[in-house]
Amino acid sequence: MADNASIPPAAAQLPTPPDVIRCAYAELVVTDLQRSRWFYTELLGLVVTAETEDALYLRAFEEYLHHSLVIRRGPVAACAKLAYRVRTPRDLDLAEEYYRALEVPVRRVPAGTTKGIGEAVQVEDPLGFPVEFFHDAEHVERFTQRYDLHGAGAISRLDHFNVVTPDVPAARRYYEGLGFKVSEDIADSEGTVYAAWMYRKPTVHDVALTGGDGPRMHHIAFATHERSQILHLCDHLGAVRRSDHIERGPGRHGVSNAFYLYLLDPDGHRIEIYTHDYYTGDPDNPVITWDVHDNQRRDWWGNPVVPSWYANASTVLDLDGDPRPVVERRDAREAEVTIGADGFSYTRRDEVEQGFKVGHQV
Ligand code: 4SX
Ligand code: FE2
């Protein structure tokens, strides 16, 4: 068999992709900057690197690039950008050529177009997301050992993006073309794929693909060092009677094995706090495929996923700042096949195979 037998012809004809290091920052549009300031700086404890009349540039305690999150005031809540860092300045040329070959909108912007970020290539990716590639960024103080500043819920760094897209296998092929590898996915025995987790840095993911109407942004995830920091965030929210910001968890994921919590910011943007996934950096890292009916896939303890987690996600903007229309998912939806009258899930597959009626109805 030829070496490239598994490469789809379209990908084989594309130029060399840029060398993506990792997911690096996101930009969210919020409708009330002061309300969001409380959530991101007082509750989550993110550090303010810079502030303008209409935007906050935030980083976590171990980050030394200018920001990992921009919160910008705007008329409608949305995700304005998902940014990846590339290895060298030359990778910006590769990014430009790559996306021109994909025939999607591409724009090269000078340094400083986003505060603290060098020259960049902005694209509307084939999945419809506003994506930026950059190499240079302003360095700021890394607060790793500023324990005097870390609260009990200290967040260390950005971990991943999660995007909603109708056709997960097509999105997976697009990201594989860009050099990402799959760590885990969720499928059924008929071959429908419901979600996939993909990485460049050696963790479970930089981006997760969630099957649904898209393009929409499902969540942005930040990492802590300890589970206790996630539990503290829950206690903090309870103490200020803002527990309604908690959407799902805390819990242990099946996929990724990470300990998690999903919060909703004041505009409903979903933020995950995540810790303790595993190393994936060897070239033969095994892919884990979960059965969509396995009731421990999304929560290792079998707790049900709340319907809003499947249903809701943030609008994304195009490069002109206009909301992107959404394309409907045509394949089966995970919530339908696992929840309610038409759905089922099990805890012990062998008992299901033997025909016992032990399926866990959630
Ligand atoms: O819900 S899942 O256990 O599938 C999951 C969701 C695993 C890892 C994640 O980062 C996530 O958002
Ligand atoms: Fe996540």
Automatic annotation (TrEMBL):
Q: PROSITE patterns, alphabetically?
A: EXTRADIOL_DIOXYGENAS (PS00082), VOC (PS51819)
Name of the protein in its database record: 3,4-dihydroxyphenylacetate 2,3-dioxygenase
User: Which cofactor names does the annotation list?
Assistant: Fe(2+)
Q: Species name for this entry? A: Kineococcus xinjiangensis
UniProt family annotation: Belongs to the extradiol ring-cleavage dioxygenase family.
The answer to whether UniProt assigns keyword Calcium to this entry is no
Q: Which NCBIfam families match?
A: HpaD (TIGR02295)
Gene Ontology MF annotations: dioxygenase activity; ferrous iron binding
> Which superkingdom, per the lineage?
Bacteria
- Ranges for domain VOC: 22-136, 157-276
Q: Keywords in alphabetical order, please.
A: Aromatic hydrocarbons catabolism, Dioxygenase, Iron, Metal-binding, Oxidoreductase
